[in-house]
Amino acid sequence: MTNRKMVVQLTDKILKKEAKIGVIGLGYVGLPLVLRFCEVGYKVLGFDVDSGKVSSLKQGRSYIKTIPSSGISTFFRNGQFDVTDDFSRLNEPDCILICVPTPLTEKKEPDLQYIEKTTDSIQSCLRKGQLIVLESTTYPGTTEELILPQLEFTGLKIGKDFFLGYSPEREDPGNKGFTTSQIPKVVSGVTPSCKKTATALYRQAIQKIVPVSSPRVAELTKLLENIYRGVNIALVNELKMLTDRMGIDIWEVIEAASTKPFGFSPFYPGPGMGGHCIPIDPFYLSWKAKEYDFTTRFIELAGEINVSMPYYVVSRIVDALNERGKSLKGSKILILGVAYKKDVDDARESPALTIMELLQNKGATLLYHDPFIPVLPPFRKYHFKLKSSPLTKPLLRRIDAAVVITDHSQVDYEWVVANAPLVIDTRNVRRNLKRWKKNIVKA
User: 228-442: what fold?
Assistant: First the structure.
């Protein structure tokens, strides 16, 4: 079959919704994609190495709070959705979307083991006419330098026998204003025919498609989006530390600056960087830049500032306790919010975890309350055997300090301040209080 016929055949299956979609990695990125393609009429086969997730989905249960179980169970019943941990079934889908994690190693270098293992699985099942698209955030060159050679090792030819592209995920968990279908999708392909088939696929499910010239452009696009945020957050974090010394309220400064109708976009300080993107993605580019004898000084400086913020918060806790004649060692510290951002159930890379470890190492007794995370799971670096404590008056009155790390909407901070002896505020929750309270310390 010629290149053109293969493209026409796959595109025709996509347009007629006869193509089966495979999604590898059923987390905060993959599961919304599954549901979106089901919504527009495709059959979807989900893959995940986590048998617990597979079991939950087969029972029609969602393990992500922002995704209701109703849609999952409906698509299972009508036969549109199936899920498996058997990767030998990767020959079944016509289009395969890769949504696996891309973390960092302990040395802040890219950890591509999940992409590599996934590519190995696809390679062993690759057949003619399949489209593979990587969505995981990574450094420019990954698609063409790592995935392409492995798939071509099968003897099949790119752009003729199979198609390969990159389309960065842009999910924002907990943001009800932008659903998967509403967020514009950057799409690229290794060859023109690859881009054509990938564009045809995403156009069926996403309202706006943004084609770009190469996977390297698309890969760097995602990194730029998160580096932009990381650098600007580092700027306001540095200013927060300065303004604390100067006796100026950085939050009031930002609010005033935000009244300028042009040339300014507000970013807000916090206790450190969290989530699966902003704390990680800039280091992917910094690592790759070294291959070109280039040092990304701006990015690395921003990373240093953001990484230092949990240490700054702990120093503020120590100072606040000292002013009240208390030592951190032996103090009972309640962490309010361990999720990496407001109103989500995801604690990956949360600054709360670093702060908790630092406090624990200094001899503090830890408790936490988070309405979205009832039990702290084990993480790669952290292992806290803790359950969320109910937020009660007796609890607040027996602790030495409450530290607001994540400002969940469900928590009544006015009530917390009224009942806790000391509140360390890293999120400016005091802005909603009727009057300033002496037991609030900014951090």
Answer: Rossmann fold (3.40.50)
